[in-house]
Amino acid sequence: MQAAAAKLAADYQLSPTATDHDFILELTRDGLQLRWSARPDYQPLVLDYSRGRQAWRQQLGGGKQEAVVRALGVAKGIRPRILDATAGLGRDGLMLAHAGCEVWLLERHPAIHALLDQAVLHLQQYQQAQEKVQWALNAHVLPRGSLLEYSEMPADLQDLGIDAVYLDPMFPEREKSAAVKKDMQILQHLAGADLDADGLLPAALALAKHRVVVKRPAKAPFLAGQTPSTQIASKKHRFDVYVKAPYVKSNR
Ligand SMILES: C[S@@+](CC[C@H](N)C(=O)[O-])C[C@H]1O[C@@H](n2cnc3c(N)ncnc32)[C@H](O)[C@@H]1O
């Protein structure tokens, strides 16, 4: 296990020592987990899309009625190729993959990237072993990175033929913390508020051929102050849709 943990640390360029860190990735027999060492009252965050609540949501809730799926414009004959440029724990991105879209997941935080990459790998292996419908193969975790890191868009991103970019940057928290799910709280403390998020909109609009969708808390201002073409509301959130060009239907 120690050798495997050291290899993961090297692969994901994480610090191999577990001292003096507020957050620690631990390799267990069931995979990676993220522990907040300053808050032992919090269960470690385990990202496993093959079982429990997370799997249930993918199986039963991953339908066309999900607001994120509707906001991305998934419909009969329309399965956009999507870049999820703030992938986080991959819940929204995997929902879109489950809905039949090819999805590339981009995440800049090394520990979150490692958790996500391992979780997607595990889900793909699980689906292959179970001979289940292998929709997870539609999800591709990109090397750690950010649209904001490039002065020019790298050719390999441009070559993917991205129809839509999805953005869900962390909003500075205003709700009472009890209202925020615990795994999201851990994420907030680990990655912090994405105060540079406004810069993502022009980069996303430059890359997407058809549309950019931004998830915001219901009452939050528009990203970069830019008014969207249309909006889709869910219980606590709003999906701001910036349409560049209509999709073209295929027979998928
Ligand atoms: C609110 S979370 C996204 C949650 C995700 N939609 C989900 O369903 O799990 C925001 C994530 O975006 C990442 N992020 C923020 N800005 C980014 C950027 N410019 N490039 C890449 N990742 C970014 C943060 O590190 C964080 O993990």
From TrEMBL:
Record GO terms (molecular function): rRNA (guanine-N2-)-methyltransferase activity
Reactions that this protein is recorded to catalyse: guanosine(1516) in 16S rRNA + S-adenosyl-L-methionine = N(2)-methylguanosine(1516) in 16S rRNA + S-adenosyl-L-homocysteine + H(+)
Record keywords: Cytoplasm, Methyltransferase, rRNA processing, S-adenosyl-L-methionine, Transferase
Top-level EC class as recorded in UniProt: transferase
GO CC terms of this entry: cytoplasm
Enzyme nomenclature, EC number: 2.1.1.242
Gene field: rsmJ
SUPFAM superfamilies: S-adenosyl-L-methionine-dependent methyltransferases
Subcellular location(s) of the protein: Cytoplasm
Function as written in the Swiss-Prot or TrEMBL entry: Specifically methylates the guanosine in position 1516 of 16S rRNA.
The protein's name: Ribosomal RNA small subunit methyltransferase J
Binding site residues for S-adenosyl-L-methionine: R91, D92, E107, R108, D168
Gene3D superfamilies in UniProt: Vaccinia Virus protein VP39
